[in-house]
């Protein structure tokens, strides 16, 4: 794996801060971003897909799922759940898809029977194909993607379903500091440029699998986990990085910029942290896994973006849904899951809906607190009406006015989050006090940031 950052160095106290969350909580995915999960099935003790689909839809705030195949039973299980589903084509099928007839057949057999009820939104062609270093496979990747898109056009599905392919950070020849990020020589113009051209033309995202876990050391563990640290300065830009994921994403962005593709969306297709590992695996423990994934989701949904991509959100898929006991490799490979096979949490990162969480997770003292925030899909005009309503009820709205501690970000979501929570806390903290015409939801994660403090 390429380098991803140097050891954090001493910095002025004014800069020694964690990243500042600029919106509300894990329950809010600002600007269309979403929180997803990778649903792998390499285990002999996992629940049936139908049970999994209902659990995700009813008991969690996860709004998208990435599958590693097109198993019919699994696709049918997600019927009428409204969860956005990404399906994956295995690497070995990619050469066959360079034949347009086969691509049309594949769409007919694996997409059309399910699309009426299952919300399939992306087809992922292989996984980390370029890093596999199979020249024949790599040469087939973009033609296969083009043929699948052509087949989708023929079925009038090109606007609903996008075609992409996830990549590891192994596609980079350089990544430290982030501003010098560039793709591997030879692959940059022969593979990545045609791929990015296709993604731009079809409105599809560039998908990457960044894993700070694999790049961290004992000296950089806090930096990798989004914990308080001294930060890393990119001397070329003067920008400060307070977490490793931002550095990895900006290295990808820099590589795309060299080829002229800064307008292509980036999606985090896989990232996660194991709750258990072998003795030599740094940070493979429960506390680290909880901190990484909890902070990851808050950061991804916050709208802060990265130093080179400010004010952006990223669809983010956590790896993985379950601990999978048949995965080969070190102990960590079998312990990336958010949930045990019985669907109880391995640790709590706040993605269970309140009712489900009360049933499954024994709260600690700090977890007993509740905040009211807007739902991810709440209409902006509706939220503005809620802001005006709450401010007319005698709630102090000065903090969201210009100059106030919670004025930034100046968005309906950010302002509504503060005033809805003030109303909820002031009028009894009952569930109906956070309804707001079904635009509010109760969160277990403190949405406070900087000097903007949310009451609990």
UniProtKB/TrEMBL annotation:
Top EC category: hydrolase
Residue ranges of domain X8 in the record: 370-454
Residues in the signal sequence: 1-29
Molecular function per GO: glucan endo-1,3-beta-D-glucosidase activity
Statement: the UniProt record of this protein carries the keyword Metal-binding: no
A Pfam family hit: Glyco_hydro_17
EC number from the UniProt entry: 3.2.1.39
Keywords: Disulfide bond, Glycosidase, Hydrolase, Plant defense, Signal
InterPro entries named in the record: GH, Glyco_hydro_17, Glyco_hydro_17_plant, X8
A biological-process GO annotation: defense response
SUPFAM superfamilies, sorted: (Trans)glycosidases
Keyword rRNA-binding: no
Name of protein: glucan endo-1,3-beta-D-glucosidase
Species for this entry: Phoenix dactylifera (Date palm)
